[in-house]
Amino acid sequence: MKAWEMAQDIFTNAKPVIRTEEEQTWTDNVDVSAFYDDNLALDWGSNVPGSGAPEKIMIAAIQALENRGYRVSEEGYRLLLEGLKANEDKNFVKLHQISALLRREIAMAEKDDTSPYWNYTVYHSFEQYEKKVEFPESIAVDVETEEFSKQIRGAWLSQFIGGAMGTMVEGYTFENLLKAFGEVREYLREPNTYNDDITFELAFLDAFAEKGYDVTSQDIALSWVGLIPCGWSAEELAIRNIKNGIFPPESGTYRNPFNEWIGAQMRAGVCGMVAPGNAHLAASLAWRDGEVSHAANGILGEVFNAVMTSLAFVEKDVKKLVRRSIDLIPEDSEYYSVISFAWECCEKYETWQEALAACQEKYKKYNWIHAYPNACCEIIALYYGEGDFQKTLYVITMCGIDVDCNAGMIMPLLAIQKGMGIIPKDLLHPAFNCLETYMRGRFKSISLDELVDDTLWSIKKAQKIKEEKK
């Protein structure tokens, strides 16, 4: 049946009715204007749910584009100032108009040939990337053992711990955290697992459970739109693109100024977990996942964390782990310049505070949600933490900025390397027995036991299929 026939069938079989006055509305007694006004206002001024840190995403959009070597027009800056004023005045008629005009200016931003961004190679595909690095030989990890099961459990539990600690303090500087709370070494409030970062790893796991190592970016994208109602910055724009039929890699590049922010870097852990001891495979999975919402250096951030997680199963020295992972990022990329600078600071300075100060100064033009300053914090915490769980968590927490993303990625490395026993008992909490999310379907609420079982089952299934194909 053709579409016109379907439409004609609906039309000719429609039975006339008389609706009551209450039924004649399009809004079902909901203030539609207020709903969309409130959503738009979030772009112009909001607070991070967990920590209350302030952010203005429209300012950040221009900042992100300029970080990526583009120049926003003077008209764009004029509209930005007008929009901030309209939002302050709650003039939503004007704010909707300004927002549309500003988004057009952002989309029309021109390349700034004087930007240092263009001094580096921009990596557009996994094939381009893998030609520039030399991967280590894969080391087989027996996924049937009790030890591996405990490593996976420790990885997820450590991510819950890191996420819970970080959610309380994200979005602030080290200096302001120190003034407000002193040395943060324990939870500042009752911890919970409600965190938006992990939802995207669960969506990956959902796609991976079905397709295994053959999972594609499209598979992951479909898991996103099916399971995840909304996102923030790069992820939110990618979800909108996918819903409009724009699939990876374009979903990560089309009108998405945030595609080198932390969003891909923050969800890499699961890619490393399902590829234990196989850095090349972990990098490949991370690239496929990353290009759903990110591009270039944003994807390299996910590759870096996925490789670290994968190698943690076979490399027990944390500093060697970091160094080996840095070396699997192309030396001519801007991302490599960032993580190698952070490493050099660690080698140079006696204290993590000095290394952090140097990185803060160098990358002060970048938003606190950008991949670069957060990658620096990861390296600093792992280096000065020296493999000690409590010390590493303390340093990554006090480094500030996007703490939940950073702690959620690096704390699992230590549990994978050294086992569940490395986690201090005073960091364990009953809340970590169950993961609560805002997702649709089975991941809305899932116990730690179920999550571990799902992960193990998916890995074993994928490896079995892979062996059968040989």
SSE order and pairing:
Elements: H1 3-12, H2 32-44, E1 46-47, E2 54-55, H3 57-67, E3 70-71, H4 74-88, H5 92-107, E4 110-111, H6 126-130, H7 146-169, H8 174-181, H9 197-211, H10 217-227, H11 234-243, H12 250-253, H13 269-273, H14 279-290, H15 297-312, H16 318-326, H17 334-348, H18 352-362, H19 371-385, H20 389-398, H21 403-418, E5 434-436, E6 445-447, H22 448-469
Antiparallel strand pairs: 1-2, 3-4, 5-6
Helix pairs in contact: 4-5, 7-21, 7-22, 9-10, 9-22, 14-15, 15-16, 15-21, 17-18, 17-19, 18-19, 19-20, 19-21, 20-21
User: Count of helical segments?
Assistant: 22
Straight-line distance between termini: 44 Å
Record field, number of beta strands:
6
Gyration radius over CA: 23 Å
Structural class, judged by helices and strands?
A: mainly alpha
> What is the beta-strand fraction?
under 5%
Low-confidence spans: none
The overall average pLDDT, rounded, is 96
* Largest beta-sheet characterization: 2 strands, antiparallel
The amount of helix comes to: 55-70%
* Shape descriptor: globular
* Spatial strand arrangement across the major sheet: 1-2
How is the quaternary structure best described? single chain
One letter per element, helices H and strands E, the order comes to: HHEEHEHHEHHHHHHHHHHHHHHHHEEH
